[in-house]
User: Which sequence fits this backbone?
């Protein structure tokens, strides 16, 4: 019986080839049907798409620093693997997931590393703080339940949950509070980070959308944040602020 969290080697290699554009159209139609019917294959495919897109953005945004970004990614993968040693899910598929997350976290914070100032450092802390615990997010509900249980908070689901698929949930510690994070993937392969805490996460920004939304711009990264009067939320992505506003509203 096949491990439900792994794939046969030849099948996994075909998925890698498909993501790299090395599969003939007729073979892709067959493989696409297999992927759509296998949740494990779906996760691997979307994780690899996210990894490829994050790496492309990193190379485009910082061509002269790309090797440094990749090195930082490997450090991030090592950190995630350390946290997840007790997780039930292991194997090669794990590296696609952690690498995608690593590339996202490195890429979205890279502008501040190369243009350091205290304001930028503070605004990036919720996204860059090292995870102290993490799980693979199989669904929005299971991710939210895990965050609520781990943080001791009544965590609210991220906005536009039919559009954004969670791939990872994690908790992190800031100097004055704990926070939860969800790494989210949309249908185009773009990655977003959703954060929640019972303390204010961001201190500056301009008003966008309705009066409850504020936006921090850090290079190509935009962070939208708001509060419901009890908890504080943020949604970050390498996209126009208007895209984030549409997701939230």
Assistant:
């Amino acid at each position: 019986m096949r491990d439900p969290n792994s794939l046969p080697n030849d099948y996994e290699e075909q998925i890698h080839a498909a993501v790299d554009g090395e599969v003939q159209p007729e073979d892709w139609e067959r493989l696409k049907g297999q992927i759509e019917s296998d949740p494990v294959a779906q996760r691997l495919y979307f994780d690899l798409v996210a990894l490829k897109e994050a790496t492309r953005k990193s190379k485009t945004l910082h061509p002269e620093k790309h090797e440094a970004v990749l090195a930082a990614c490997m450090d991030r993968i090592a950190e995630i693997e350390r946290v997840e040693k007790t997780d039930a899910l292991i194997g090669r598929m794990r590296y696609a997931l952690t690498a995608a997350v690593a590339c996202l976290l490195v890429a979205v914070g890279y502008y501040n590393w190369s243009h350091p100032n205290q304001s930028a450092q503070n605004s990036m802390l919720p996204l860059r703080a090292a995870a102290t615990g993490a799980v693979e997010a199989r669904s929005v509900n299971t991710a939210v339940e895990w965050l609520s249980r781990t943080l001791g908070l009544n965590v609210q689901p991220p906005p536009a949950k039919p559009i954004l698929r969670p791939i990872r949930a994690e908790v992190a510690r800031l100097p004055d509070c704990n926070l939860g994070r969800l790494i989210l993937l949309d249908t185009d392969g773009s990655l977003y980070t959703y954060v929640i805490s019972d303390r204010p996460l961001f201190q500056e920004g301009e008003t966008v959308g309705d009066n409850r939304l504020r936006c921090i711009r850090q290079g190509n990264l935009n962070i939208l944040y708001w509060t419901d009067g009890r908890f504080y939320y943020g949604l970050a992505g390498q996209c126009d602020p208007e895209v984030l506003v549409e997701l939230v509203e």
Remarks:
- The longest strand covers residues 165-174.
